[in-house]
Amino acid sequence: MARGLFIVLLLSSVGQAPQPTPPAAAPPATDIYELTFDGTLAGLAGAKAQPISVERGYDNQPFYTPDGASVLFTAIRDGKQTDIYEFDRATRKSKPLITTPEGEYSPTITPDGKGISVIRVEPDKTQRLWRFDRAGKSPAVILPDIKPVGYHTWIDADQLVLFVLGPPATLQLARISTGKADTVARDIGRSLQRIPGGRLVSFVMREPSASGAPSGDYGVYAVHPSGTITALTKVAPGSADRDCAWLSDGTLIMSAGAKIMAWKTGDKEWRQAFDGAPLNLSSITRMALSPDGKSLAVVVSEPDPQKK
Questions:
Q1: What sign for the dihedral angle of Cα 264, 267, 270, 274?
Q2: Which pLDDT does position 22 carry in this prediction?
Q3: What domain count does the chain have?
Q4: Is 60 exceeded by the pLDDT of residue 115?
Q5: pLDDT confidence of residue 305
Q6: In a domain, 246, yes or no
Q7: In 10 A of CB 215, how many CB atoms?
Q8: CATH number of the CATH domain containing 183
Q9: What is the helix (H) or strand (E) element at residue 44, kind and residue range?
Q10: Mind listing the pLDDT tens digit for each residue in 191-246?
Q11: Number of other residues whose CB lies within 10 A of the CB of residue 145
Q12: Which domain holds residue 276?
């Protein structure tokens, strides 16, 4: 795939009726660890691991607060539904932040720093984007007409990128001011990540074949707020979930089993940046980088208690 290839896709309105969502599978048993290093790719190879949340069951979707003091994450504690928790990095302790009769996922601090945006599963199973205040109170729906939303990333206070469930899953650019969104890509992965130094957001998409139909290969792309899409690179070899993060220097990292692979503009191939196997960290998936670039929160498979 040639880098710098611009693909302008026809924008389509979101005013169509949503397609049915298949029944949700049981959440996987996962833990969250924090890898501390010096902020360099070489330092990541020797990173130390500390637990953020390792209780039995589902612990997932970490997000560092802008001040770096806390990590927000999603967890199931009652065996029934997801709630949002906050991990204090100084005390190494967690507390409930958003606990409601509904399920909440994917916590993110809003651009003004005063709120928390989440994907909320409503009583009728509708998934929409909601906002709570910083104390986890005063819920309000942000985009009433866009559903079912799976993941989101803010570009600025008005515009954000959405992963909207399909089939197929679509990448949509939404505006708070209008409440509307445009579809700019189809058959995408769940990882939406701000690229350092600008307003671009990376995502993973099944690459089109010569005929225009989706192929079996996936690539990493960047979307501009205008809707223009740029091809970056193919996904890392061995990556099943294709979860990404960006280091402060513009290096893209992607999970691949127990390993984290790295790529930067100009590289011909991906290279190994971290191996979790010696630390008993397996099946690395979602990742989040701290604001100072020296800590990486990773989600891993929970150890099988029968194998201990």
A1: negative
A2: 44
A3: 1
A4: yes
A5: 61
A6: yes
A7: 13
A8: 2.120.10.30
A9: helix 41-45
A10: 999 999 999 999 999 987 776 666 678 999 999 999 999 999 999 999 999 999 99
A11: 12
A12: 28-302
